[in-house]
Design goal:
8 strands; four-stranded antiparallel sheet; 180 residues; 20% strand; single chain
């Protein structure tokens, strides 16, 4: 597996692949018959993930981490991994931690955010369409509503969709349809 390159335009697909590759590797290690070798391989996988988390936490990366939702959620994925003792007796438990964190990651990521002038507004709620032809809708936070009212650029960042400028059409109160 490759070293994480921290950049502002990291995509959901890149992070999804990374999380999937980590879980796949954990499964491969768990299937190894030589438990001492498996323990060594587990430690390497643990160190790989911990290295990513360390890089993400460095102060020089804080702005990118705060403004790039895929990296933000990858960092939270890492915080959901909790290991027991590093011995063969606890190996299965420790390897399962990667899947537990993956389940949290998949369940918690809404994968759609409004950006105001390029800055994510995590307080607005974006509703992903249930059918491909339906529009995205958003319940704007007071901050986003004020920014929109003042003519600020509003963008949508969503899983499987390039970040793009959008137009909002009011439907009810502060609930808007997003026109791509």
């Amino acid at each position: 597996m490759e070293k994480l390159i921290i950049r502002a335009d990291v995509t959901w697909q890149e992070i999804d692949e990374r999380v999937n590759d980590i879980s796949k590797r954990a499964h491969e290690i768990n299937q190894m018959s030589d438990r001492q070798k498996a323990l060594k391989e587990f430690r390497e996988l643990r160190d790989y993930v911990e290295s990513d988390m360390h890089e993400l936490k460095l102060s020089r990366n804080s702005e990118v981490l705060d403004n790039c939702a895929p990296l933000h959620y990858y960092h939270l994925y890492g915080t959901h991994i909790h290991f027991e003792k590093f011995d063969t007796e606890h190996l299965v438990w420790n390897l399962d931690e990667f899947d537990q964190a993956k389940k949290w990651y998949e369940a918690s990521v809404s994968r759609a955010y409004i950006l105001i002038e390029g800055i994510p507004d995590y307080d607005s709620t974006v509703f992903i369409p249930t059918k491909p032809m339906n529009p995205y809708t958003v319940d704007l936070s007071p901050t986003a509503f004020k920014a929109y009212s003042n003519g600020k650029h509003i963008q949508l960042q969503a899983h499987g969709l390039a970040t793009q400028n959008v137009r909002l059409e009011e439907t009810y109160g502060q609930l808007f349809e997003i026109v791509l």
